[in-house]
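Quarterly update, task 2.4: D-galactaro-1,5-lactone-bound model.
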Amino acid sequence: MNKKILVTGASGHLGGMLLKALGRIGYSNVVGTDLKKKNIKKNEKFIICNLKNFKSTVKITKGIYAIVHFGAIPVEDTQQKILHNNIIGTYNLFEAARINKVKRIIFASSNHAIGFHRRTTKLNELSTQRPDSHYGLSKVFGEDLSRLYADKFNIKSMCIRIGSCLKTPEDRRHISTWISYDDLTQLVNIGIKHKSIHHEIVYGASKNKKTWWNNSHAYKLGYKPKDSADRFNINLLSKNEYKDKMALLFQGGVFTSANFKGKIKNIL
Ligand code: 15L
């Protein structure tokens, strides 16, 4: 495809991976953006932009067909930092996209948008959002923002509730949450190319037997995960979470127990 694709967060872990992977699978016009230029190769296009700055965000979204939005703080942080970087940054990007008639946005949502669900509850794309942190709340905001911009302004979107996207699973929790780089790339590709998406929620997970998510909606859209956490030896994975009894109850793991002042029995 030679339509222009913008990848935000291109100096970061997953944005950087996608900037390269999209080029490899046949996108010839991909441009990355981030606050700073890091790990960008000479043959890759890149523009510095702070999404908190609306004017610059409008500038970099001109002539773009689809945005792959991975630019955000990727873990829990202070309310102010999450507000400015994740919430305002994302809002600016969608509004800039509307002004510039961008057709699609693939939003990097996260399992932390539904982190306060118990591990015994199987979720699907219609399950209630239950953010487990300021970070998770910013992902809920992004999901709802993209729904508004799809319904009202016809900007098609796919929100990928990413589990744990790493080269290989590292912790025992990842047996349920892992997604490989290739499988995440496949989902992003579907978001850019699928003919009839409107506003879709899918789970960013490989084909893991011990999953907490029914991802049949993604499968209907054509997702065929190639990888699975099942082939890794669970005994070799770290047991970090096992010291934290609360983390073990909820899908969001340690994000749920950090600064927790509530009562576990109230979170059904
Ligand atoms: C996320 O959303 C984070 O960006 C990543 O750092 C991991 O914590 C991941 O979720 C996870 O839940 O494993």
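Highlight for this quarter: Residues 79-99 form the longest helix (21 residues).
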